[in-house]
Amino acid sequence: MMSGRTAVVLLPSVLDGHALSIAPYQAMLRFASRLVPVGGCKGPVVAALLPKGIAIDSIRRLLPGARLRLGILDQVATNEGANIPAFSLASAWEELLSDIDPICCMLPHTIDSVQLAAALSVRRRAACISGVVDVEVPNGVEPLFHRLVDNGNRMARTAARTENVVVTVDWSRCPLQEDAPSIQEETVEVKRLDRGIDGRYRLLDRHAPSADTRDLDRARVIVAVGRGLGKAENLTQIEHFAATFPASAIAGSRGACDSGWIPPERQIGVTGKTVSPEIYLALGISGAPQHLAGMQSSRSVVSINSDPHAPIFAHSDVGIVADMFSFISAWIDRMSSIQKGKAPCP
């Protein structure tokens, strides 16, 4: 590794007008700070592409205390950033970073950023490692990037065999850390870029999700249903059941979502969302590894299934072998009696 190089945190969302999410930014900055011992690496730089006409001071206020490197795209108006595919700007990112030649570029682990990471790694002749959840430099020379494999059941430590690397950081699965990001003296470098948008691509349309899933991120209790739901008409009973728990939300397995009973945005698992509620109630879910990967960090798992051999029971704190609808009906009746004062609270 070359001495005096740095690690760079890339913020693609600044260009498309989305508000900067603090959690992924802090995780990336913390990981980049750990690379300081590598080959005399300097403290991390935060880089962003900006459309023409944007106020630089607004970015400084958004990222106080950061060493900023900002690239201005003169051919992009302030209101046009959201219509540009992230990967079509890979050459502009490369121009912005070319004179500092970073040892590592870090991006948030989103669909757009994963595509950008792949395109940028080709231009930089760099290794590309996605879904990083932790970084360590055990010998002070070679960084090791941790990522979950085998449907989230095992942790792999990966080292790049190239002079630089591009990684995406999956902050939702990062362990809690006590080390603080390395804060350098605030600097701002602004560079007008000659390269712009790769004209071979254009964004045809964006479709907003049909379901708002923010409640899944803050829910204390998640009620998830599988193929045991049987039909969409039974969802009303599930909604009544979920309503007995404060701060609850409803989700589903891939089977329930593929059947059209639960919106696909509420699917839990490898190809869906990852959640960490206090209580995860699995109703009629068999327990495929792909589903378990999305809910295994729940504090407590309660499963209800009529099959005593369902794999979900091996991953549950409480397992109930019963018909889910009979149990739900009895639970709702019991809660109703408690609310009316006709039965003591258990």
Largest sheet composition: 9 strands, mixed
Assign an overall shape.
elongated
Side-by-side strand order of the widest sheet: 7-6-5-8-4-1-2-3-9
Instruction: Compute the separation of the termini in Å.
Output: 63 Å
Number of domains: 2
In total, how many beta strands? 14
How much of the sequence lies in strands comes to 15-25%
SS field, number of helical segments: 9
Kindly provide the radius of gyration, computed on alpha-carbon positions and rounded to a whole number of angstroms: 24 Å
The CATH H-level homologous superfamily of the largest domain: HUPs
Nearest-integer average pLDDT: 83
Structural class based on helices, strands and sheet pairing: alpha/beta
CATH 2nd-level architecture of the largest domain:
3-Layer(aba) Sandwich
GO biological process, one term: fatty acid beta-oxidation using acyl-CoA dehydrogenase
Pfam family, one: ETF_alpha
Keywords: Electron transport, Transport
GO molecular function: electron transfer activity; flavin adenine dinucleotide binding
